[in-house]
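Q: For a teaching handout, I want to show students what a protein-ligand complex looks like in C-alpha cell form. Below are the inputs, and the small molecule is zinc ion. Please produce the holo structure.
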Amino acid sequence: MPEKIKGLSELLDSKMNQHSVVHPMSSEEYELYMIKKQNDQPGKLDGLDCSICKNKGYYLRYDSEHHNSVQVRCECMARRDAIRRLNQSGLSQALQKMTFETYQTESDWTSKIYAAAKAYAATPAGWFFMGGQVGAGKTHICTAILQELLKRYPARYILWRDEIAKINAGRNDQTSIDCIGRLENVKVLYIDDLFKSGNRDSNGKLRPNPGEVNTASQILYARYNSDDLYTIISTELFIDELLQIDEGIGSRIAERSKEYRFEVDRNPARNWRTTH
Ligand SMILES: [Zn+2]
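A: Here is the structure, written as C-alpha cells, with zinc ion included.
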C-alpha cells in the first residue's frame, strides 16, 4: 500500500475507533465525558497553581436533575483575589511578617491593644488610631489589622514619608492626583507614621509643613465623609498634638477612632492611655 493511502487508512481506522467508543455512551455518559474533557483543559491564570480548575478559575459540574453541565466558580478565585489585593496593597515582604501570630503580648497594655486590634479586625467600625511612643509595636499591630482586613477588602498600606515624597514629586500632575484619589477611596487605608517626614521643631517634635498638612486633610476629610471606609493611623503624635497641628485633622481622627484610640505614653514603662 502506498505510504499516503496507508496513512489515510490509519486515520479512518482511528476515527472509526473513536466513533465506536463514543457511540454506545448514554447521553449522560457523553455529557460527563465532555465535561471531563473540558475540565482537563489547562487555563491561563497565574499566581497560584490550582489542581481543581487547572488555572481556569472555573470548572464544569454535571447537573443530574437538568441533565446538563453547569459552570462553577473555583474556590481558588477567592485566594487569587487575596493574592492580587496583597500585591496591590503596598505591603513589603518584611511587613507581611507583621501578623497577629507574630505580635508579642508581654505586658498588660500590649495584651489590651492586641485584644482591641483583634476585635477591630473581626468587626471593623470607624477608624483605628495608635499614637505615641516610638518603637512600641504600633506598626506591627496596625499591619496585623490591615492583613486581616485584606482577606476581605481592597486595602492599602502607605508609609507617610514615602508617599508624601511621591506626591510632592508629581505635585499637580495626573499621577499625583490619581495617587491621592486612590487613597481617598480605597476601602481600607493604613497610614504608617503620619506626619513623620523629616520636618521637626527645635524640641524634636514633628512639625509637618503646610503642603503635607494639606495633603493629609484632603485624604482624611474625604475618608471622613464616607461612612464605610476604614482608616488605620499610627503616628508618634498624640491626638492633642494633632489638634495643635491642624484642628480639622485632629478632631476628625478623634471622632472616628472613638472606640479604638490608643496613645502610648512617652516613658520607659510605655503605659498606655485612651482619651475617650
Ligand atoms: Zn481553581
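A: Two things your students might notice: Residues 3-22 form the longest helix (20 residues). Strands lie at 58-63, 68-73, 128-132, 155-159, 188-192, 230-235, 261-264, 272-273.
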